[in-house]
Amino acid sequence: AIDELRKLFIKYYNDITENKILSGFVWNDIPVWLSEENQRNYKAAYDIAVQTDGANLPIEFKFGTEDQPVYQIFHSVKELQEFYMPAIQHIQQCLTDGWRLKDAIDYSLYEV
């Protein structure tokens, strides 16, 4: 019974964490959807820009929402870094918060 409860709690908090990562990041007042695919694309663009001193720049990303898209062009490694580092910090903070929530569950309250 505790194992089933543990699975439910973990799934619940993992879902909350994933939703915060996906839709909780706002950069320059613009919502940014951080799907796994977008995270990979941003990381690849950033890594290549750093490794090649910006040879892949300018690069354009679509932020905002489907109803209100915002097209952002990054012209320099510095500009891209000013977006990418806060995005990574957002993801890490969401993960840390999720770990803390799961660690705080007192399963002894549910033992019979």
Question: Layout of helices and strands, plus pairs?
Answer:
Blueprint: H1 2-23, E1 25-27, E2 30-32, H2 36-51, E3 59-64, E4 69-74, H3 77-103
Short structural description:
By secondary structure, the protein is of the alpha+beta class. It has helices at residues 2-23, 36-51, 77-103; strands spanning 25-27, 30-32, 59-64, 69-74.
Low-confidence stretches: none
Quaternary class: single chain
Elements, N to C (H/E): HEEHEEH
Strand residue percentage = 15-25%
Can you walk through the features of this model?
This protein is an alpha+beta fold and 112 residues long. Helix content is 58%, strand content 16%. It contains 3 helices and 4 strands. It has helices at 2-23, 36-51, 77-103, and strands at residues 25-27, 30-32, 59-64, 69-74. The strands form 2 sheets. Strands 1-2 form a two-stranded antiparallel sheet. A two-stranded antiparallel ribbon has the order 3-4. Helix 1 runs antiparallel to helix 3 (77-103) and helix 2 crosses helix 3. The protein is elongated, with a radius of gyration of 18 Å. The termini are close together. The model has no long low-confidence stretch (mean pLDDT 96).
Question: What brief labels describe this structure?
Answer:
alpha+beta; two-stranded antiparallel ribbon; 4 strands; about 15% strand
